[in-house]
Amino acid sequence: MATRDYQTEFRNRLIESRLTPNAISLTGFVLCVVSAVLILQGWWIAGGIAFIVGSVCDTLDGRYSRMSGKGTPFGAFLDSTLDRMEEGIVLAAVAVQFVRDDDLTFIFGGDVAVGVTALAVLASLMVSYTRARAEALGVECKVGIADRAVRVVVLSAGLVFGFLQAIEPAVYLLAAMAIITVFQRIFHVRSELKQPVTDAA
After folding, report:
1. Which keywords accompany this UniProt record (predicted)?
2. What is the C-alpha separation between 23 and 29, in angstroms, rounded?
């Protein structure tokens, strides 16, 4: 009971504070930029931790927005936009490191790794786009094996263990899972839109 009262008190104080969901979103974005800078320095563990913390901020801003009632339409737009940018910025830094350091690639080589990284960025963006486009058509589209949370886990593991050459297979896995998810969502939307429309009684 005491723990629950403490949590309630903390939540109320947080809601009453000046903290906004946009501030949390921007903090997550800044941390992902810091992650990219650390990756470019070859500091994989530090870069991975910064990316993980930044991604946690991305999951908290939406919850805090609903809990505090401080959310705005622009805040939701900003959150979604920054989410897409963060993943791309970090993967761009990874691609640069593939070019710089041949020791990072042991499966297919640096050129292939850079190409697959670009494909991973594109596929990740398409995962988000297919959901947004489907919802614009009135179809809920959260299906697929690689939503943002799964992609964050895969990329985080690759970054934290980047010094052990884990980033190359992580990028390949990320790209493959994102591509599969895009097709899963395409087929899901196609199936949903083919359903007969029933007139309201």
Report:
1. Membrane, Transferase, Transmembrane, Transmembrane helix
2. 10
In the annotation, is 83 catalytic?
A: yes
Q: Of the listed 61, 83, 147, 199, which one is catalytic?
A: 83
| Selection from 27, 175, 39, 195 nearest residue 107 by Cα | 175
Tell me if 199 is assigned to some domain: no
- Which residue range(s) make up the domain with 72? 2-193
Overall number of domains in the chain: 1
Confidence of residue 201 (pLDDT cuts 50, 70, 90): very low
C-alpha–C-alpha distance, residues 88 and 104, integer Å: 19
Is 135 a member of any domain? yes
Q: What is the pLDDT of residues 72-128, one digit of tens each?
A: 888 888 888 888 899 999 999 999 999 999 889 888 888 999 999 999 999 999 999
Asked if 165 and 104 touch (Cβ cutoff 8 Å), the reply is: yes
Burial (CB < 10 A; 0-12, 13-18, 19+), residue 32, is buried
Residue 96 sits in a domain whose CATH number is: 1.20.120.1760
In a domain, 55, yes or no: yes
Number of H-type helices and E-type strands within the chain: 7, 0
In a domain, 198, yes or no: no
